[in-house]
């Protein structure tokens, strides 16, 4: 791993060039982020004929923030739908579903390999992971398109329902794959006496290269991975440019300039209301996967879930909340679907809820108007 000569001004120029802005947050590593980038760039173009063009990530310590040009993707989907008929759409969705079934096969094989041969297991995952994420990417481009209210046409209700159900199915795979990756990395770390979790701060390309040496890393490599775990910036574009920055000053400056969110003076956040109704309660914030243990710190029946996005595996925990506030979402989002099923109010597509709201804040959720009001901190 050689350090990349790159300064803040070049990076900010790239972010502006591609119109990249905060789109989602996850409790995941650089390995996952770089696999997403490969899936959402070249792989997605081969399937759909267009891609995200560029992807950036600011992360560290198993948290990351994706930067996409969502407006560009929404326009690309609108153009694609005008140029292609129902038969072409069905063909694309069938291909994505085949990718899903293929993923079930290699994930099962990876589970068997994980304990017996973690190196071989990682090789298998690297071979297939980006294509699987491109399959999710197909559903996600339509998800983003239908997140715009004017695109939620009733004559497309069956298509929306179809895409939503299949997207949920595909989304169940990657948390399990990430757990396999984590277990493999821990085993390899024990073998060579270093923190195996550091391996998840390689990009997918770097990990592939280092597998040739069975991941017996030197001190310089380990030091660089430690820096990344403390904070990194990753940028990848369709012209195969890939940058990883671990310089704290540069990473902090990007966070301040492009990702910092201030609490609005009117203390109101606006999104799309789902389910109707109005409730007041205490916020419980999660970045990605929900952990029921946190609920023991705030007992009661007045809790409001604040999350970047909900996941199909989290329904049992979501039932403990009286309302949902989500950064991401539209009619295809899991948060919208589960809110309707549970008959609880939700505000989705708020964008910056997890940046502004903290666990313990008192908030009012008005799903009739799509407004979240911060009452007191």
Compile the SSE list and pairings.
Blueprint: H1 8-18, E1 21-26, H2 30-48, E2 54-60, E3 63-68, H3 70-83, H4 86-116, H5 118-146, H6 157-171, H7 173-192, H8 204-210, H9 219-230, E4 232-237, E5 242-245, H10 248-259, E6 268-270, E7 272-274, E8 278-286, E9 303-307, H11 315-318, E10 323-326, H12 334-342, E11 346-348, H13 353-356, E12 362-366, E13 371-376
Parallel strand pairs: 8-9, 9-10, 10-11
Antiparallel strand pairs: 1-3, 2-3, 2-4, 4-5, 6-13, 7-11, 8-12, 12-13
Query: Main β-sheet, in a few words?
Result: 8 strands, mixed
Give the low-confidence spans: 1-5
* Helix-strand category: alpha+beta
Number of structural units classed as domains: 2
Instruction: Please list the strands of the largest sheet in the order they lie side by side.
Output: 6-13-12-8-9-10-11-7
State the helical fraction: 40-55%
The total of beta strands comes to 13
How many helical stretches?
A: 13
Euclidean distance between termini CA atoms: 44 Å
Radius of gyration: 21 Å
Oligomer: single chain
Give the CA-based shape: globular
């Amino acid at each position: 791993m050689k350090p990349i000569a790159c300064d803040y001004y070049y990076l900010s120029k790239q972010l502006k060039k591609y119109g990249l802005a905060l789109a989602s947050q996850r409790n995941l590593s650089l390995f996952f982020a770089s696999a997403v980038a490969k899936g959402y760039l070249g792989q997605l173009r081969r399937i759909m004929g267009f891609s995200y063009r560029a992807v950036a990530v600011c992360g560290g310590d198993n948290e990351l923030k994706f930067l996409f040009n969502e407006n560009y993707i929404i326009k690309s989907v609108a153009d694609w739908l005008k140029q292609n008929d129902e038969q072409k759409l069905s063909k694309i969705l069938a291909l994505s579903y085949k990718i899903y079934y293929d993923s079930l096969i290699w994930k099962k094989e990876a589970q068997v390999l994980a304990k017996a041969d973690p190196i071989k297991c990682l090789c298998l995952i690297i071979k297939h992971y980006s294509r699987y994420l491109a399959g999710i990417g197909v559903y996600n481009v339509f998800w983003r398109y239908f997140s715009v209210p004017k695109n939620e046409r009733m004559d497309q209700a069956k298509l929306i329902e179809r895409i939503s159900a299949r997207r949920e199915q595909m989304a169940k795979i990657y948390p399990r794959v990430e757990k396999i990756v984590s277990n493999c990395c821990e085993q390899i770390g024990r073998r060579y006496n270093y923190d195996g979790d550091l391996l998840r701060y390689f990009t997918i390309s770097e990990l592939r290269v280092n597998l040739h040496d069975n991941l017996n890393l030197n001190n310089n490599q380990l030091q660089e991975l430690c820096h990344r775990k403390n904070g990194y910036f990753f940028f990848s574009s369709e012209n195969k440019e890939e940058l990883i920055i671990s310089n704290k000053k540069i990473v902090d400056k990007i966070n301040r300039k492009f990702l910092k969110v201030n609490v609005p003076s009117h203390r109101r956040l606006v999104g799309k209301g789902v389910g109707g109704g109005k409730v007041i309660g205490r916020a419980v914030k999660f970045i990605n996967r929900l952990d029921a243990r946190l609920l023991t710190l705030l007992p009661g029946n007045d809790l409001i879930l604040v999350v970047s996005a909900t996941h199909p595996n989290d329904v049992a925990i979501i039932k403990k909340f009286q309302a949902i506030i989500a950064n991401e979402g539209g009619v295809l989002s899991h948060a919208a679907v589960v809110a309707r099923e549970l008959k609880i109010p939700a505000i989705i597509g708020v964008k910056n809820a997890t940046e502004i709201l903290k666990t313990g804040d008192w908030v009012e959720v008005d799903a009739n108007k799509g407004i979240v009001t911060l009452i007191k901190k």
